[in-house]
Amino acid sequence: MLEMITGGFKKAQDLLQGKATIQEKHIEDAIREIRLSLLEADVEFHVVRSFIDRVKDKAIGEIVQTRVSHAGKKLKATPEQHFIKICYDELASLMGPVDTSLHFGSRPVSAIMMVGLQGSGKTTTTAKLARYLQKSGKKPMMVAADIYRPAAIEQLKVLGRRLDLPVFFAPGKTPPQICKDALEAAQFKGCNVVLFDTAGRTIVDDVLMHELEDIKAVTAPENIILVVDAMIGQESVNVAREFDRRLDISGFILTKLDGDARGGAALSIKEVAGKPIKFLGMGESLDRLEEFRPEGLASRILGMGDIVGLVKDFEEVVDEKKAEEDAEKLLRGDFTYNDFLKQLKVMKKMGSLTDLIAKLPLGQFGIPQGMQVDDRELMRVEAVINSMTVFEREHPDCLNESRVARISRGCGQPRNKVAELMGRFNTMRGLMRNLGSGKKKALGKLGLDPSLAGALDEQIPRAPKKNLVDLKKKKNMRKALKKAKRRNR
Length: 489
Fold this sequence. Notes:
The protein is α/β, with parallel strands linked by helices.
């Protein structure tokens, strides 16, 4: 996602790195790289020009305070970091201010009209927004007002069953009449919000717009949301202008930002149309609708990650009490393959690996440009663990060569892949066990203050030795049984 834009800012940062003083020539070179990357990413030309002018005006002639005080400490800031801060502020300003609110009137049933071109992901986004409202305490109903696209009604019905939400459809009626009837039906079903999944076209035409204007006239929706495919780039600006001129839209939802989107739509659409981006659609899961945060997207473009967004994703799928128990087990060294499998499932719920890593503040240690993280690796790891017996998952130390060979055959993976997974698991478990026991060496490896060892010793409970003794007894019993079987032969 947004690799093209991020690449330009990285090149600009590299050009300024290590320079004690930055001259106008250095800034010109850095800005040239940024301009090229924005244009290649299909950002609207006038938006690029105004953004570059603002960055240049703020950067040239600026006196940089290289030593600043923060919380009683003296910190050193480089001119390069100051330039990146200017870029960050301007990017956030370009896409902001944020407004993710949806308006609900005084009527018993509020209406949200979903509009957009065909293929933008409108039907799936309608279901995602319904799920978002459902989690917020609303009682939504989806309306199948697209009577032209084959299987559009059936698709919405399937999504409704997955979310356990009602879907209204009326074969033989016109879309405006369907939407009007849906408002009345919603009251009988006890719903307080309806979402109209309207028809789209491959281009903006008068037939489509007249139909949408008729729906707006008979239903008076409180919100009109334009669903925009982020992959169409600069063309999204023309689409947004026309829909806003004819319908006076409330805001946008950008979809497919987790794909090969160049990012032009995200940076252009708010500046040109003057309406806010409300949500981002990330992935196919119906829970993957994020409230738009310009600061988070600006931070990701500059390679600084988005910790706030990552924490929100984590809170969505993780039980706080369970997370504390798992952390305690990990620090005791009691972490098993079953616990590991649960963590993998949590990661899969949070989205793709590429998206998760992009939200980490890895900086120059992040994913190299052009490299794709293979999400199927999680499936391979899951297959390896599922090929283990219940006893093996709970007792990782019992795995030997013969067991590894059987697991390898069961999951269809080479033996060296199984061995690699075991090696990484045991290294992590051993390191966390040492950390839990308060060993200074382990704390040093993690880059932590060794003086924390005593405090950790007091807070982290010890693993009972009885478990280890019982495990040894079981191993000895198995050996004795094997010897007895051989003698009986």
